[in-house]
Fold these 3 entries.
Entry 1:
Amino acid sequence: MSTNVNRQRQEEREEDLQVSYSPKYREFQELNSNSAKFRELVFFARVAIFSIMTVLICFVLLSLGIQSLWAFLLSLLISFALNSTLSYFIFSMKH
């Protein structure tokens, strides 16, 4: 019985001592900087355009006499739809 326990402990020690030969690091894979910069530029442009369109559409809806809550919600939805279609066309023109 004790020999089985000793064997098991010895096997556990041997497993602990085994060295894994997987590399500790990876080679640097250069990103396509032009594509990354373009995506970053498009992201910030989308945020800016969305906020400007939301304010302008909300102003128009409020001047038409629509209640504030509905004007704000409609302006958010319209701005999101316009922004999505605009970004779709930008990416389709790039490819």
Note: The mean pLDDT is 82.
Entry 2:
Amino acid sequence: PELADGNPAAPGSPPPGAPPGGPATLVNLLDLYYPERHHGITRVEVVGRVMLPDAAQRAEMKKHMPVDDDRDLQMVLYRYCVMCCAADASPVFALLRKQQPAGLVTDDWVKVTGHWLPPAGLGDPAILELERIEKIPAPKDPYLSAPMK
């Protein structure tokens, strides 16, 4: 993301983005890992399943992904991406920053709206600073399809 003066924002810093209540761009989880395709977009809406990792799961996750704040591992949005068939599906995810809403359980389908912090570098997670999260029915097609280039 860029600051108002055109300089790049520091990795992990909140983008200036649209004001709350302004339009959000509907993207899928894969889109969150291609910021060069979405120049200027900072406020997004994404559909996925929520994971609420326990302490042991968070400790394991931290071994494999760089995070500056352990609280970033409290809530994860994920969805499976298929290359060929369901047998080769791999999870795609984003970390969700916000206090966990009451009533959600792991694997609930949700629609989230918030400010997107693109990955700072290769291997870094995408992060969404949530404004809103709502439980929704499972979509007709729960899988994402891998882009063919």
Note: Residues 1-19 have pLDDT under 50 and may be disordered.
Entry 3:
Amino acid sequence: MVDDLQHQDSQRITIGVMTFAGMWCAICRLAVPNVWCLLCLWQLLGVCSLWFRGHVAIDAKMASTEEKRARSPNPANQDAMVAIKRVAVIGAGPGGAIAVDALAKEKAFDLIRVFERREAAGGCWLGDTTPPPLLTDLEALANRTADPPVDIPDRLPAQTPKLTQPRFADSSVYPYLETNVDAIPMSFSQEPIPSDRSPHSVALHGEDTPFRHWTVIRRYLQSLLERDGYEDLVSYSTTVERVEKVGHEWKLTLRRDGERSDYWWTEWFDAVVVASGHYSVPYVPAIPGLDTFEKLRPGSVLHSKNFRGRDHYRGKRVVVVGASVSAADIAYDVASVAQTPVHAVVDGHRANLYFGDEAFNHPRIARRSDIARVDGRTVHFADGREPARDVDAIIFGTGYTWTLPFLPGVEVRNNRVPGLYQHVVYQQDPTLLFVGAVAAGLTFKIFEWQAVLAARLLAGRATLPPLADQQKWEADRIAAFGDGPRFALVHPHFEDYFNELRRLAGPGENGLGRQLPVFDRAWFKSFLDGHERRKNMWQRLNAKAWDEAGVDELNLGTVPGAGRKTIEAPPAYDWDTIRKLPLLLQALQGLNTKAF
């Protein structure tokens, strides 16, 4: 402070002398034009000196501020947390949309900012009008290294040419996509999803279909941000490129997409809520010859994220890889228009826990083993049986890679984020929180419970257990579920998880904050009933397809894997069975099966 005052006094004296000299110089110039005296030169040098000293002072002050921030200790636990007044939310999908409401209703923060890299809210429910990008680096997708951090300009703010590095912000929506979860368990507790039903869904599931067209979900999520002025908190077309802790503050480096260039700048916050999701970067397994196949016919290798509807595959020879929901939907969908058979790589892989493998029992679908290699347009399978020849497209429904390129200080291991307590709180620094770091079925509701806990903690109205207890929770979960994707699987312990988050969040204070109801088992029942409805639909339509077309007519007689397969129906769901499912899953892992 004293140094600043001395600097200001020195500047005032210099400016005074320069003003007097300037007046004298003006008189001199009128008397003797086109002649420069020593006083003129001294004045010119003085102006340059003032400009230089001013910039040096500004740079020194900025450097001093950064140094002070860097010297400030990082909070190792909740006791070291400073008052939280500025909160950044990354993402305006379902997790980000509900996080905004949870934070705002605490009425404890001076600033809430939401950064969304797309042009509107909705996350993976936001459609695209542009063609899907080509998968140009299959090796990086296979190695799970396809979304590295970008280079940041040395000085900010800055204007740069448009970024060309792929950021995987494109949509996974196709025109007739419907939800595969009942609207009741899918919706937030206080905001029901509208009952608009598409003719397509009604035709498949009846007048009371519980499923919704993707546009209904998109509008639903946007409406959450159009209330109470929340839209003013959102910065669209803005990507968070780096999040780093400097002292007690979080420094966010931001990039806004422009038509011809990108604009970069920084903002500072006390806490960060990461709600960016983990369904952006496709995973495509390494297969010999796959890269050559794609280069010979660009666009012939794609991920389910880039699927834009069955019409693109009319009359084509198609291989679909994957045994879970996306692959099942796509194989069943393209079977009606593609050349027979559609080769579905499912043998040796566990069926989806919720949906089974009923979709693959279509007469136009042939079940195949893993792909061993691709030679030209011929796909060879691991069991050595008849290859698929003259293949036009290979579609992968093989899941995603979780990446956090903007958080270089946070590890992503085995497709999960280590060090999170209750999948929400970063144990090393509880001013960093996550909404959506789970694999579950009641996703929107889980996001809501997580968001309320995060908001209460940041508002100082909820407390965490000791750090040792948080670490024990994670260690116990690793022992039970492993240090991989199953760690983040909430199923089937929904009730226990919801109630624990509700207990940690507490009721709030003086009526402030978003209130969480007690877990309702009817939510889970509706969730399971919806899955049964989809399986029944596949069974009904597949039976009809088999009745209408014989094997000889479909030319499936020589195709291995073609033919009816019956699936034993699961027992009726009850809560004792649900709670024992983890033990059953562990037993299944001992079998010769694997999941993508």
Note: DSSP finds 15 helices and 20 strands in the chain.
